[in-house]
Design a protein that fits this description.
Strand order of the largest sheet: 3-2-1-4-5
Order of helices and strands: EHEHEHHEHHEHH
CATH architecture: 3-Layer(aba) Sandwich
Distance between the termini: 45 Å
Strand content: 5-15%
CATH superfamily: HUPs
Number of domains: 1
Structural class: alpha/beta
Length: 234
């Protein structure tokens, strides 16, 4: 039985997207999860996305293949080194090499296409403009501009049948606040992976990249230990 209006939820398998999925469900939407194999070096998140989707009972989970390694330009899709051991001040300066060119634009475009076929007016994405490592496609002004474009670009929008809303429930939250919200909704963060450079054999997080350090800080702010496996913890 449908739980409510259909919504497409971008699900990477990380902490933020797992929380966003739980929020969409808590708001009465029926979530359709969309994940991508895009050539990312941290492919452990693909299996995490499957586990999270299953645990949270999505209506359907689609995994799409896009090889962004053909373009490179990012430490996540090439042999560029992943920054490690940086303090928060260093993380806030400039755009890091882990930024994948136009990734959120690409992902949202696929989400938009699926939403239109589902007669859905809602897309959820776990972007964050507080603990976001300087990514330009995580800013509120980007999301607002994309939403405006999306409503000009679809048949449903032009005919006035659907006014698309891109929901960004985490965009003003710190990592600690995100984790607190997820825990209140029963999110199992042991199923998730946030690391940019996990151990390829075991999938354990490195504990030193920007994503790991921000995540660990968020759990510390909640006074609890991160249930995900790590090679080292600061």
């Amino acid at each position: 039985m449908s739980r409510g209006k259909p919504a497409v939820v971008l699900l990477s398998g990380g902490l933020d997207s797992a929380t966003t999925l739980a929020i969409a469900s808590s708001q009465g939407f029926e979530p359709f999860a969309l994940s991508f194999r895009y050539g990312q070096r941290h492919q452990v998140e693909i299996e995490c996305a499957r586990r999270v989707a299953a645990a949270q009972g999505v209506a359907k989970h689609v995994m799409l293949d896009i090889d962004l390694r053909q373009f490179g330009g990012s430490a996540l899709t090439s042999d560029l080194p992943v920054p490690k051991g940086r303090d928060l001040a260093a993380m806030s300066e400039g755009i890091p090499t882990t930024y994948v060119p136009a990734r959120n634009t690409v992902f949202l475009s696929f989400a938009l296409a699926w939403a239109e076929t589902l007669d859905s007016a809602d897309i959820f994405v776990g972007v964050n403009a507080v603990d976001y490592s300087g990514y330009p496609d995580c800013r509120p002004e980007y999301i607002e501009a994309y939403q405006q474009m999306a409503n000009l670009a679809t048949k449903a929008g032009v005919e006035g049948r659907t006014k698309l809303t891109i929901h960004t429930p985490l965009i003003r939250m710190t990592k600690g606040q995100i984790i607190a919200a997820g825990l209140s909704l029963g999110v199992d963060y042991g199923l998730t992976s946030t690391c940019y450079d996990p151990d390829p054999a075991r999938g354990a997080a490195c504990g030193q990249c920007d994503a790991c350090l921000i995540r660990l800080k968020g759990f510390a702010e909640n006074g609890i230990s991160d249930p995900a496996p790590y090679l080292t913890r600061v």
